[in-house]
Amino acid sequence: MVRHLISFSLRNRYLVLLLGIALFAWGVFSMKQNPIDAIPDLSENQVIVFTEWMGRSPQIIEDQVTYPLVSNLQGIPKIKNIRGSSMFGMSFVYIVFEDNVDIYWARTRVLERLNYAQRLLPEGITPTLGPDGTGVGHIFWYSLDAPGYDLGELRALQDWYVRFGLQTVKGVSEVASFGGYQKQYQINIDPHKLNYYNITMMDVLRAVKSNNNDVGGRKFEMSNTGYIVRGLGYIKSMEDVKNIPVGKEGSATIKIMDIATVQMGGDLRLGIFDENGEGEAVGGIVVMRYGENADAVIKDVKKKIKDIEKGLPEGVKLKVAYDRSELIESAIQSVKQSIWEEMIVVSLIVLLFLFHWRSAFIIIIQIPVSVAASFILLQAFGISSNIMSITGIALAIGVIVDDGIVMVENAYRHLADAKLEKES
User: Fold this and answer.
1) Which of 28, 157, 174, 382 lies 20 to 30 Å from 310 when distance is taken between CA atoms?
2) Which string of DSSP letters, residue by residue, matches 4-62?
3) Domain of 64, in residue numbers
Protein backbone atom coordinates (compact mmCIF):
# COMPACT_ATOMS: atom_id res chain seq x y z
CA MET A 1 0.00 0.00 0.00
CA VAL A 2 2.76 2.42 0.97
CA ARG A 3 4.77 1.49 -2.15
CA HIS A 4 1.78 2.21 -4.41
CA LEU A 5 1.15 5.53 -2.64
CA ILE A 6 4.77 6.60 -3.08
CA SER A 7 4.73 5.49 -6.70
CA PHE A 8 1.52 7.40 -7.40
CA SER A 9 2.95 10.53 -5.75
CA LEU A 10 6.13 10.37 -7.82
CA ARG A 11 4.16 10.01 -11.05
CA ASN A 12 1.82 12.91 -10.14
CA ARG A 13 4.15 15.47 -8.61
CA TYR A 14 2.10 18.50 -9.57
CA LEU A 15 -1.08 16.98 -8.17
CA VAL A 16 0.67 16.28 -4.87
CA LEU A 17 2.05 19.83 -4.83
CA LEU A 18 -1.44 21.22 -5.49
CA LEU A 19 -2.90 19.09 -2.69
CA GLY A 20 -0.16 20.30 -0.34
CA ILE A 21 -0.90 23.95 -1.16
CA ALA A 22 -4.64 23.37 -0.70
CA LEU A 23 -4.05 21.64 2.65
CA PHE A 24 -1.87 24.52 3.83
CA ALA A 25 -4.45 27.13 2.74
CA TRP A 26 -7.24 25.19 4.46
CA GLY A 27 -5.11 25.00 7.60
CA VAL A 28 -4.43 28.75 7.60
CA PHE A 29 -8.17 29.42 7.19
CA SER A 30 -8.98 27.06 10.08
CA MET A 31 -6.29 28.74 12.17
CA LYS A 32 -7.99 32.12 11.74
CA GLN A 33 -11.44 30.69 12.48
CA ASN A 34 -10.42 28.60 15.48
CA PRO A 35 -11.12 30.27 18.86
CA ILE A 36 -7.92 31.31 20.64
CA ASP A 37 -7.65 31.27 24.41
CA ALA A 38 -4.90 30.88 26.96
CA ILE A 39 -6.68 28.46 29.31
CA PRO A 40 -8.44 25.27 28.16
CA ASP A 41 -12.11 25.23 29.13
CA LEU A 42 -12.50 22.19 31.40
CA SER A 43 -15.62 23.44 33.16
CA GLU A 44 -18.85 21.47 33.21
CA ASN A 45 -21.67 22.10 30.77
CA GLN A 46 -23.99 23.77 33.24
CA VAL A 47 -26.76 26.33 33.66
CA ILE A 48 -26.95 28.38 36.85
CA VAL A 49 -30.28 29.50 38.34
CA PHE A 50 -29.96 32.41 40.77
CA THR A 51 -32.72 33.51 43.14
CA GLU A 52 -32.56 36.44 45.55
CA TRP A 53 -34.76 36.80 48.65
CA MET A 54 -33.07 39.40 50.81
CA GLY A 55 -33.21 39.19 54.59
CA ARG A 56 -34.03 35.47 54.79
CA SER A 57 -31.90 32.94 56.60
CA PRO A 58 -30.14 30.09 54.74
CA GLN A 59 -32.58 27.56 56.20
CA ILE A 60 -35.63 29.48 54.93
CA ILE A 61 -33.95 29.86 51.52
CA GLU A 62 -33.24 26.13 51.45
CA ASP A 63 -36.79 25.09 52.38
CA GLN A 64 -38.82 27.56 50.32
CA VAL A 65 -36.60 28.30 47.30
CA THR A 66 -33.72 25.86 46.71
CA TYR A 67 -35.60 22.62 47.45
CA PRO A 68 -38.65 23.41 45.25
CA LEU A 69 -36.38 24.42 42.37
CA VAL A 70 -34.12 21.37 42.62
CA SER A 71 -37.02 18.94 42.88
CA ASN A 72 -38.83 20.42 39.86
CA LEU A 73 -35.81 20.86 37.58
CA GLN A 74 -34.82 17.20 37.79
CA GLY A 75 -37.14 16.18 34.97
CA ILE A 76 -35.22 18.02 32.26
CA PRO A 77 -33.70 15.58 29.73
CA LYS A 78 -29.95 14.97 29.34
CA ILE A 79 -29.10 16.11 32.88
CA LYS A 80 -26.13 14.57 34.70
CA ASN A 81 -26.84 16.03 38.13
CA ILE A 82 -28.22 19.05 39.97
CA ARG A 83 -26.54 20.83 42.86
CA GLY A 84 -28.12 23.42 45.13
CA SER A 85 -26.53 25.97 47.42
CA SER A 86 -28.30 28.24 49.92
CA MET A 87 -26.89 31.23 51.76
CA PHE A 88 -28.17 34.34 53.44
CA GLY A 89 -30.65 35.96 51.06
CA MET A 90 -29.53 33.99 47.98
CA SER A 91 -30.03 30.60 46.36
CA PHE A 92 -27.94 28.98 43.62
CA VAL A 93 -28.96 25.90 41.64
CA TYR A 94 -26.41 24.34 39.26
CA ILE A 95 -27.91 22.13 36.52
CA VAL A 96 -25.12 20.09 34.94
CA PHE A 97 -25.90 18.69 31.47
CA GLU A 98 -24.15 16.06 29.40
CA ASP A 99 -21.07 17.25 27.53
CA ASN A 100 -22.61 16.94 24.05
CA VAL A 101 -25.63 19.13 24.87
CA ASP A 102 -25.83 22.57 23.25
CA ILE A 103 -25.69 25.17 26.01
CA TYR A 104 -28.45 27.35 24.54
CA TRP A 105 -30.76 24.36 24.12
CA ALA A 106 -30.12 23.60 27.79
CA ARG A 107 -30.90 27.17 28.86
CA THR A 108 -34.17 27.07 26.91
CA ARG A 109 -35.28 23.86 28.59
CA VAL A 110 -34.42 25.25 32.02
CA LEU A 111 -36.48 28.37 31.31
CA GLU A 112 -39.45 26.22 30.27
CA ARG A 113 -39.34 24.32 33.55
CA LEU A 114 -38.84 27.49 35.61
CA ASN A 115 -42.17 28.84 34.33
CA TYR A 116 -43.86 26.02 36.23
CA ALA A 117 -41.53 25.90 39.23
CA GLN A 118 -41.97 29.61 39.92
CA ARG A 119 -45.57 28.99 41.05
CA LEU A 120 -44.22 27.00 43.98
CA LEU A 121 -42.04 29.85 45.23
CA PRO A 122 -43.05 32.65 47.63
CA GLU A 123 -44.85 35.64 46.14
CA GLY A 124 -42.59 38.16 44.45
CA ILE A 125 -39.62 35.78 44.10
CA THR A 126 -38.35 35.38 40.52
CA PRO A 127 -35.47 33.00 39.69
CA THR A 128 -33.13 34.12 36.90
CA LEU A 129 -30.52 32.40 34.77
CA GLY A 130 -26.84 33.14 35.23
CA PRO A 131 -24.74 34.48 32.32
CA ASP A 132 -24.05 32.15 29.41
CA GLY A 133 -20.35 32.02 30.24
CA THR A 134 -17.98 29.37 31.56
CA GLY A 135 -15.71 29.02 34.55
CA VAL A 136 -12.83 30.52 32.54
CA GLY A 137 -14.89 33.31 30.99
CA HIS A 138 -13.31 36.12 33.05
CA ILE A 139 -11.07 37.42 30.27
CA PHE A 140 -10.62 41.10 31.15
CA TRP A 141 -10.56 43.09 34.40
CA TYR A 142 -10.39 46.86 34.64
CA SER A 143 -10.61 49.56 37.29
CA LEU A 144 -11.53 53.23 37.21
CA ASP A 145 -8.54 55.48 37.81
CA ALA A 146 -10.08 58.71 39.12
CA PRO A 147 -8.21 60.73 41.77
CA GLY A 148 -10.52 62.98 43.74
CA TYR A 149 -13.75 61.05 43.14
CA ASP A 150 -15.50 59.17 45.94
CA LEU A 151 -16.35 55.48 45.67
CA GLY A 152 -20.10 56.09 45.36
CA GLU A 153 -19.69 58.34 42.32
CA LEU A 154 -17.32 55.86 40.67
CA ARG A 155 -19.67 52.93 41.27
CA ALA A 156 -22.57 54.89 39.78
CA LEU A 157 -20.41 55.74 36.76
CA GLN A 158 -19.47 52.08 36.38
CA ASP A 159 -23.02 50.76 36.76
CA TRP A 160 -24.84 53.30 34.59
CA TYR A 161 -22.32 54.14 31.87
CA VAL A 162 -19.23 51.96 31.51
CA ARG A 163 -20.97 48.61 32.07
CA PHE A 164 -23.74 49.28 29.58
CA GLY A 165 -21.22 50.35 26.95
CA LEU A 166 -19.08 47.21 27.28
CA GLN A 167 -22.11 44.90 27.24
CA THR A 168 -22.75 45.89 23.63
CA VAL A 169 -19.45 44.29 22.52
CA LYS A 170 -19.92 41.14 20.47
CA GLY A 171 -19.09 38.02 22.48
CA VAL A 172 -19.53 39.63 25.93
CA SER A 173 -22.03 37.84 28.13
CA GLU A 174 -21.89 40.04 31.21
CA VAL A 175 -19.93 42.87 32.80
CA ALA A 176 -19.86 42.35 36.57
CA SER A 177 -19.22 45.43 38.72
CA PHE A 178 -17.14 45.32 41.90
CA GLY A 179 -15.96 47.74 44.56
CA GLY A 180 -17.32 51.06 45.74
CA TYR A 181 -20.74 51.87 47.18
CA GLN A 182 -24.13 51.46 45.55
CA LYS A 183 -25.94 54.68 46.40
CA GLN A 184 -29.33 54.47 48.05
CA TYR A 185 -31.75 56.58 50.06
CA GLN A 186 -31.73 55.26 53.63
CA ILE A 187 -34.73 55.81 55.90
CA ASN A 188 -33.91 55.27 59.58
CA ILE A 189 -37.26 54.89 61.31
CA ASP A 190 -37.77 55.78 64.97
CA PRO A 191 -39.97 53.01 66.49
CA HIS A 192 -41.15 55.30 69.33
CA LYS A 193 -42.54 57.80 66.83
CA LEU A 194 -44.25 54.98 64.92
CA ASN A 195 -45.95 53.94 68.13
CA TYR A 196 -46.86 57.52 68.99
CA TYR A 197 -48.54 58.18 65.61
CA ASN A 198 -50.00 54.65 65.49
CA ILE A 199 -48.32 53.88 62.16
CA THR A 200 -47.03 50.43 61.21
CA MET A 201 -43.90 49.53 59.31
CA MET A 202 -45.98 48.24 56.40
CA ASP A 203 -47.69 51.63 56.15
CA VAL A 204 -44.28 53.24 55.66
CA LEU A 205 -43.19 50.65 53.07
CA ARG A 206 -46.43 51.06 51.08
CA ALA A 207 -46.16 54.84 51.19
CA VAL A 208 -42.60 54.90 49.93
CA LYS A 209 -43.33 52.37 47.19
CA SER A 210 -46.49 54.07 45.94
CA ASN A 211 -44.91 57.54 45.95
CA ASN A 212 -41.96 56.48 43.78
CA ASN A 213 -43.87 55.97 40.56
CA ASP A 214 -45.01 57.83 37.47
CA VAL A 215 -48.74 57.66 36.75
CA GLY A 216 -50.11 57.56 33.21
CA GLY A 217 -53.07 59.71 32.20
CA ARG A 218 -54.85 60.25 28.91
CA LYS A 219 -54.80 62.52 25.93
CA PHE A 220 -57.28 65.34 25.45
CA GLU A 221 -57.64 67.93 22.73
CA MET A 222 -58.26 71.62 23.16
CA SER A 223 -58.14 74.27 20.41
CA ASN A 224 -56.95 71.73 17.84
CA THR A 225 -54.01 70.81 20.08
CA GLY A 226 -53.47 67.46 21.80
CA TYR A 227 -52.18 67.32 25.38
CA ILE A 228 -50.82 64.30 27.26
CA VAL A 229 -51.73 64.20 30.95
CA ARG A 230 -49.42 62.25 33.26
CA GLY A 231 -48.30 62.33 36.87
CA LEU A 232 -44.59 62.66 37.67
CA GLY A 233 -43.82 60.86 40.91
CA TYR A 234 -40.30 59.44 40.79
CA ILE A 235 -38.07 60.36 43.73
CA LYS A 236 -35.26 62.69 42.69
CA SER A 237 -33.85 63.99 45.96
CA MET A 238 -33.86 63.42 49.71
CA GLU A 239 -36.43 66.20 50.10
CA ASP A 240 -38.87 64.16 48.01
CA VAL A 241 -38.40 61.23 50.40
CA LYS A 242 -38.81 63.37 53.50
CA ASN A 243 -42.11 64.83 52.23
CA ILE A 244 -43.78 61.50 51.46
CA PRO A 245 -47.06 61.30 53.48
CA VAL A 246 -47.54 58.16 55.58
CA GLY A 247 -50.68 59.02 57.57
CA LYS A 248 -52.86 61.68 59.18
CA GLU A 249 -53.41 62.97 62.68
CA GLY A 250 -56.51 65.05 62.69
CA SER A 251 -56.07 67.55 59.87
CA ALA A 252 -52.25 67.33 59.91
CA THR A 253 -50.32 65.15 57.48
CA ILE A 254 -47.66 62.88 58.91
CA LYS A 255 -44.61 62.72 56.68
CA ILE A 256 -41.52 60.54 56.56
CA MET A 257 -39.41 63.27 58.17
CA ASP A 258 -41.77 63.24 61.20
CA ILE A 259 -41.03 59.60 62.03
CA ALA A 260 -37.57 58.98 60.53
CA THR A 261 -34.31 60.49 59.37
CA VAL A 262 -33.38 60.31 55.68
CA GLN A 263 -29.81 60.15 54.41
CA MET A 264 -27.83 59.19 51.33
CA GLY A 265 -25.68 56.11 51.97
CA GLY A 266 -24.29 52.93 50.50
CA ASP A 267 -25.75 49.45 50.31
CA LEU A 268 -24.50 46.77 52.68
CA ARG A 269 -21.14 45.41 51.50
CA LEU A 270 -19.79 41.91 52.07
CA GLY A 271 -16.22 42.87 51.12
CA ILE A 272 -14.01 45.47 49.50
CA PHE A 273 -11.79 45.61 46.42
CA ASP A 274 -8.25 46.79 47.10
CA GLU A 275 -5.87 47.49 44.22
CA ASN A 276 -2.17 46.80 44.86
CA GLY A 277 -2.45 47.87 48.48
CA GLU A 278 -3.10 51.47 47.43
CA GLY A 279 -6.69 51.67 48.64
CA GLU A 280 -10.16 50.79 47.46
CA ALA A 281 -11.06 50.88 43.77
CA VAL A 282 -14.07 50.43 41.50
CA GLY A 283 -14.06 48.39 38.33
CA GLY A 284 -15.60 45.54 36.38
CA ILE A 285 -15.04 42.02 35.09
CA VAL A 286 -15.80 41.23 31.44
CA VAL A 287 -17.27 37.73 31.10
CA MET A 288 -16.99 36.12 27.67
CA ARG A 289 -19.92 34.27 26.14
CA TYR A 290 -19.71 30.49 25.72
CA GLY A 291 -17.72 29.34 22.67
CA GLU A 292 -16.41 32.78 21.64
CA ASN A 293 -12.88 33.69 20.57
CA ALA A 294 -11.22 35.19 23.66
CA ASP A 295 -8.52 37.02 21.72
CA ALA A 296 -11.03 38.64 19.34
CA VAL A 297 -13.39 39.60 22.18
CA ILE A 298 -10.59 41.26 24.16
CA LYS A 299 -9.52 43.29 21.11
CA ASP A 300 -13.11 44.47 20.61
CA VAL A 301 -13.37 45.36 24.31
CA LYS A 302 -10.21 47.48 24.09
CA LYS A 303 -11.60 49.32 21.06
CA LYS A 304 -14.86 49.97 22.91
CA ILE A 305 -12.98 51.26 25.96
CA LYS A 306 -11.37 53.96 23.80
CA ASP A 307 -14.85 55.12 22.75
CA ILE A 308 -16.19 54.98 26.32
CA GLU A 309 -13.31 57.06 27.69
CA LYS A 310 -14.37 59.95 25.45
CA GLY A 311 -17.56 60.32 27.49
CA LEU A 312 -16.05 59.95 30.96
CA PRO A 313 -15.72 62.97 33.27
CA GLU A 314 -12.44 64.81 33.25
CA GLY A 315 -9.69 62.94 35.07
CA VAL A 316 -11.39 59.52 34.90
CA LYS A 317 -9.66 56.75 32.95
CA LEU A 318 -10.01 52.98 32.66
CA LYS A 319 -6.95 51.07 33.87
CA VAL A 320 -6.36 47.45 32.88
CA ALA A 321 -6.02 45.11 35.87
CA TYR A 322 -5.98 41.76 34.04
CA ASP A 323 -5.69 41.11 30.32
CA ARG A 324 -5.63 37.49 29.17
CA SER A 325 -4.63 38.45 25.64
CA GLU A 326 -1.06 38.96 26.92
CA LEU A 327 -0.88 35.29 27.89
CA ILE A 328 -2.52 34.29 24.60
CA GLU A 329 -0.04 36.28 22.53
CA SER A 330 2.86 34.88 24.56
CA ALA A 331 1.72 31.31 23.86
CA ILE A 332 1.33 31.99 20.14
CA GLN A 333 4.69 33.73 19.98
CA SER A 334 6.31 30.77 21.74
CA VAL A 335 5.01 28.37 19.08
CA LYS A 336 6.14 30.66 16.25
CA GLN A 337 9.59 30.94 17.78
CA SER A 338 9.81 27.14 18.19
CA ILE A 339 8.86 26.61 14.55
CA TRP A 340 11.47 29.06 13.27
CA GLU A 341 14.19 27.70 15.54
CA GLU A 342 13.53 24.10 14.54
CA MET A 343 13.40 24.98 10.84
CA ILE A 344 16.79 26.73 11.10
CA VAL A 345 18.39 23.95 13.15
CA VAL A 346 17.06 21.22 10.84
CA SER A 347 18.29 23.06 7.77
CA LEU A 348 21.77 23.43 9.21
CA ILE A 349 21.93 19.76 10.27
CA VAL A 350 20.77 18.44 6.89
CA LEU A 351 23.10 20.74 4.98
CA LEU A 352 25.99 19.83 7.28
CA PHE A 353 25.58 16.07 6.98
CA LEU A 354 24.14 15.70 3.46
CA PHE A 355 25.33 18.86 1.69
CA HIS A 356 22.05 18.73 -0.25
CA TRP A 357 19.76 21.78 -0.19
CA ARG A 358 16.78 19.99 -1.78
CA SER A 359 16.72 17.50 1.09
CA ALA A 360 16.71 20.35 3.61
CA PHE A 361 13.87 22.05 1.72
CA ILE A 362 11.74 18.88 1.85
CA ILE A 363 12.06 18.73 5.65
CA ILE A 364 11.46 22.44 6.13
CA ILE A 365 8.30 22.58 3.99
CA GLN A 366 6.57 19.79 5.89
CA ILE A 367 6.73 21.67 9.22
CA PRO A 368 4.29 24.55 8.38
CA VAL A 369 2.05 22.19 6.37
CA SER A 370 1.79 19.76 9.29
CA VAL A 371 1.13 22.56 11.79
CA ALA A 372 -1.57 24.04 9.54
CA ALA A 373 -3.18 20.62 9.10
CA SER A 374 -3.38 20.19 12.89
CA PHE A 375 -5.59 23.30 13.11
CA ILE A 376 -7.99 21.68 10.64
CA LEU A 377 -8.52 18.86 13.13
CA LEU A 378 -8.80 21.29 16.07
CA GLN A 379 -11.53 23.19 14.23
CA ALA A 380 -13.32 19.98 13.18
CA PHE A 381 -13.47 18.62 16.75
CA GLY A 382 -14.37 21.99 18.31
CA ILE A 383 -11.13 22.34 20.31
CA SER A 384 -9.87 25.86 20.92
CA SER A 385 -6.28 26.94 20.46
CA ASN A 386 -5.01 27.19 24.04
CA ILE A 387 -1.85 26.54 26.02
CA MET A 388 -2.45 22.78 26.08
CA SER A 389 -3.21 22.31 22.39
CA ILE A 390 -0.53 24.76 21.19
CA THR A 391 2.07 23.15 23.46
CA GLY A 392 1.13 19.77 22.01
CA ILE A 393 1.71 21.14 18.51
CA ALA A 394 5.07 22.57 19.57
CA LEU A 395 6.13 19.21 21.01
CA ALA A 396 4.90 17.37 17.91
CA ILE A 397 7.13 19.52 15.70
CA GLY A 398 10.10 17.61 17.07
CA VAL A 399 8.54 14.30 16.02
CA ILE A 400 7.79 15.73 12.57
CA VAL A 401 11.37 16.86 12.17
CA ASP A 402 12.81 13.53 13.35
CA ASP A 403 10.58 11.62 10.97
CA GLY A 404 11.49 13.92 8.07
CA ILE A 405 15.23 13.62 8.71
CA VAL A 406 15.06 9.80 8.87
CA MET A 407 12.98 9.50 5.69
CA VAL A 408 15.01 12.01 3.68
CA GLU A 409 18.34 10.55 4.80
CA ASN A 410 17.14 7.05 3.93
CA ALA A 411 15.88 8.14 0.51
CA TYR A 412 19.10 10.07 -0.13
CA ARG A 413 21.20 7.00 0.75
CA HIS A 414 19.20 4.69 -1.52
CA LEU A 415 19.42 7.14 -4.40
CA ALA A 416 23.17 7.50 -3.89
CA ASP A 417 23.63 3.68 -3.80
CA ALA A 418 21.53 3.29 -6.93
CA LYS A 419 23.57 5.95 -8.70
CA LEU A 420 26.84 4.22 -7.75
CA GLU A 421 25.56 0.86 -9.01
CA LYS A 422 24.47 2.42 -12.29
CA GLU A 423 27.84 4.09 -12.82
CA SER A 424 29.74 0.87 -12.04
Assistant:
1) 174
2) HHHHHHHHTHHHHHHHHHHHHHHHHHHHHHS-B-SS------EEEEEEE-TT--HHHHI
3) 44-132
3-state secondary structure at position 222: strand
Integer Rg of the chain from CA: 33
∠ CA 154-158-164, nearest 5°, is: 160
The count of other CB atoms within 10 Å of the CB of residue 134 is: 22
Number of folded domains that form the chain: 3
H or E, element range at 106: helix 103-117
* CATH code where residue 27 lies: 1.20.1640.10
pTM over 0.70: yes
Q: What is each CA distance from 311 to 108, 157, 277, in whole angstroms?
A: 37, 11, 29
Summarised one tens digit per residue, pLDDT across range 382-416 is 777 777 777 777 777 777 777 777 777 777 777 77
Lowest mean per-residue pLDDT among 144-153, 218-227, 345-354: 345-354
Where does the pLDDT of residue 271 fall: very low under 50, low under 70, confident under 90, or very high at 90 and above? confident
158 and 308 Cβ atoms separated by less than 8 Å: no
| 3-state DSSP of 80-105 | EEEEEEEECCEEEEEEEECCCCCHHH
